[in-house]
Amino acid sequence: MVIKNAKDFFINKIIFPNVLITDRPGVIISKTLGIFGNRKRRMIYDFEDIFASLQRETLAELGNGRASDLFYKIGKDVGTQYSFFFSKQKIPTLFLQSFINYTFSRLASVGMSFAKFISFDPKNISLVLEGEENIICRQTGNASMFAGLVSGVLSSLCGENIEAEAKCIDCSKKCRIEANRDISVKYLPSLKEIAPLKNYDSLNFPSKINLPSKLPALNDFYNFKKIIHKDTKFYFKGRVLFFSEANMPGIVAKNYEDNKKLFENATIKSAESLALDLFRETGKTKNKLNYLQGLLSAFGWGVPYYYKRESNQVIFKFLYSPINRYGSLYQALELNGFLNAIFNKKFRIKSLETKYNPVVTEITYS
After folding, report:
1. 209 or 180, which is more confident?
2. What is the DSSP letter of 254?
3. Is residue 244 within 8 Å of 46, Cβ to Cβ?
4. Interatomic CA distance for residues 180 and 298, integer angstroms
5. pTM of the full predicted structure?
6. Coil, strand or helix: which one is 323?
């Protein structure tokens, strides 16, 4: 990210210097070290195609209006929760512009290129973000989730509710999101419902990692160029990746509670389709499963140290899996689709259980 002036330098190097820890199998940590103290976030990689397919299925079933409202709520929940991982101290007006630049430029650097160009008026609290080829909505033509994300982040930074609207003409060529005080209230998140767990740190950042088997860390995928960074996006086997804090999949699942079947079927279906392509050249079933284990470990899903196929069911166990207040349904459904493709069978989740000390998530499919 380009640092344009002294205030931007202060924000980036003094208040929020960042470290990304990628050398631990199953665990990716974003650490912010600054004058407000240490802040850590558990991060995961996932595929853009999974989110995009879910949105397309939702648009087809609910229609543009209801689907856009749903996406906006998801985005605003995620954007509002983002503030919990930073200082609760009020941002001085002098630095508000630089905080805006810092926050949205970081999003742009991981594929959210709707924020490539930033124009902010601190006096009137008016923000315009522009770009092109933004992840997810470049496939769906609907940027409502990112408008919600902008609203959540901006409201948190400014200390007042500011709504946003997507003004995109062609999402693949011209993204535009506007946020200002003139937009009427759309959605106010419940801070109690979206706040991270009080024991978020102790659950998600184990002090000692004892591995029952050797599996890759994200660093290994970087070093061997399995993940390539190009034009702000990260690619794995030609597929764009989506990098997020580990609560996001849970927030998506929470907001689909009234459309649970749609959510479940669409996620499994898209994961099946993706897996058929990803595992096409990996050979026998065992090789595909080993490949899947390595992939999930490098992507920060925890360490998938155990799997077993017996009669008509498959058991998967993850050590140090990411924990949020909403559970692991999203990841379990995606894994469901992967296993369906590998075994050419229509499994469904039979049980999903997490135990602690250490954290172990066990998923049984039948």
Report:
1. 180
2. H
3. yes
4. 39
5. 0.93
6. coil
